[in-house]
Amino acid sequence: MNRVYLCIDLKTFYASVECVERGLDPYKTDLIVADPSRCNGAICLAISPHMKERGIKNRCRVWEIPKNIHPIVAKPRMKLYIKYSAKIYSIYLKYISKDDIHPYSIDEMFLDITDYLKLYNKTPIEMATMLMNEIYINTGISSAAGIGTNLYLTKVALDILAKHEPNHIAYLDEELYKEKLWHHLPITDFWRISYGTESRLHKLHLKDMYDIAHADRNKLYKEFGITAEYLIDHAWGIEPTTIEEIKKYRPKSNSLSNSQILFENYNYKKARIVLIEMIDNLLLQLIKLNYYTHGVSFYIGYSKDKIPPLKVSFKLEQPTCNFNIITKKVLTEYDYRINEEVPIRKLGISFFNIGPRKFEQIDLFTSYESLELDNKLDGIINNIKDKYGKNSILRATSYLEGATARDRNKLIGGHNAE
């Protein structure tokens, strides 16, 4: 028996929430969600459905909005959006087990409805309609849905077809996919096909999904490597992965990462301060898990596109969660490799192969009493932050010019929390 999946997307979610909170109709209101403090270059996190109907792109910058349109500017409120998302998730749980739900993002959910159609005596479209209506009645948020016989077809039905249906619901199986979408353009409308992938496909004279399905597989594997496998499967409308398998998946190695784009160009000294803050932030997450890291990598993106980014990765002599050990090693590599003449705009750091420490190789040159005191101090700091907030206790570096931690600690996902 084929599985039946449903993917529900909350339409221009952040903007719709802001309209509902103001008692406004999202389909009659011009509203954008953007941080006005970032001026006209700020990206709109969302625009109201009414603005989309007027041909404005959802992720536009403020300055790209036509001058004859004067939208309400709503500052992002991530806690509020999370509250709405949780309420909608609770609606799904009234009808479907959490084991059959896969949250794809804050505003999009995959649901395996196979075993529930008979239970509720409904067709897939009736099931989708029931859930969408209940979401609207309880939150005022409109939605769209894709239905498919696998997760890929469900997502494509939602992304490409549902917007053109009167009820905002579209269905695809493998045969309908070939009939309706094999020659659909642009190919970037399809899940996981980026502009970079499109460019590489064009080098092979492949313009649509039909071309990929019938292409020389050896050429595809030569160009894309293992990625060619999912390109070929998706070209035929095939996706073997199920929600059950996603739930069971456990990665062979774990990692923690943190990255940020700076509001302005930083010199290497100011960027160094931010890097220290990011190490501190990531280590506190590691301590909370009671984990250690076996290695560290960091990324520095320069503001000039022609200069390649700095990428450094190294293993630690011993797995650790000690701030002083990791910071000293990262800064040594940073100071040695950084281009001091070029401004910096992006930073990222990652701890890889994290997990419980199984054993430790003792050496004669390490003060284990000092390390133990450091680790206890880090644990105390973490407990204080948990109880009183991230800004309740900070390292002195966070008060230096260029530091970003105090402001970023007030954010969720890089956006205003309140």
H/E element sequence: EHEEHEHEEHHEHEHHHHHHEHEEHEHHEE
Helicity, as a percent range: 40-55%
Structural class: alpha+beta
Strands of the widest sheet, in order across it, are 5-6-1-7-8
Task: Indicate the CATH architecture of the largest domain.
Answer: 2-Layer Sandwich
* CATH level 3 topology of the largest domain: Dna Ligase, domain 1
State the fourth-level CATH superfamily of the largest domain.
Answer: DNA polymerase, Y-family, little finger domain
Largest sheet: 5 strands, mixed
Tell me what the structure shows.
The protein has 418 residues and is of the alpha+beta class. It folds into four domains: 5-12 and 79-178, Reverse transcriptase/Diguanylate cyclase domain (Alpha-Beta Plaits, 2-Layer Sandwich), CATH 3.30.70; 13-77, MutS, DNA mismatch repair protein, domain I, CATH 3.40.1170.60; 182-245, Orthogonal Bundle (DNA polymerase, domain 1), CATH 1.10.150; 254-416, DNA polymerase, Y-family, little finger domain (Dna Ligase, domain 1, 2-Layer Sandwich). The protein is 41% helix and 20% strand. It is built from 16 helices and 14 strands. It has helices spanning 13-21, 49-53, 78-95, 117-120, 124-139, 151-161, 174-181, 195-203, 209-213, 217-224, 227-235, 243-248, 268-289, 323-337, 368-388, 405-408, and strands spanning 5-10, 31-33, 46-47, 72-74, 101-105, 108-112, 143-148, 169-172, 254-266, 293-302, 310-320, 344-354, 411-412, 415-416. A five-stranded mixed beta sheet has the order 5-6-1-7-8. Strands 9-12-10-11 form a four-stranded antiparallel beta sheet, covered by helices on one side. Helix 3 (78-95) crosses helix 5, helix 13 (268-289) packs antiparallel against helix 14 (323-337) and helix 13 crosses helix 15 (368-388). The longest helix has 22 residues, at 268-289. The two termini are 47 Å apart. The model has no long low-confidence stretch (mean pLDDT 90).
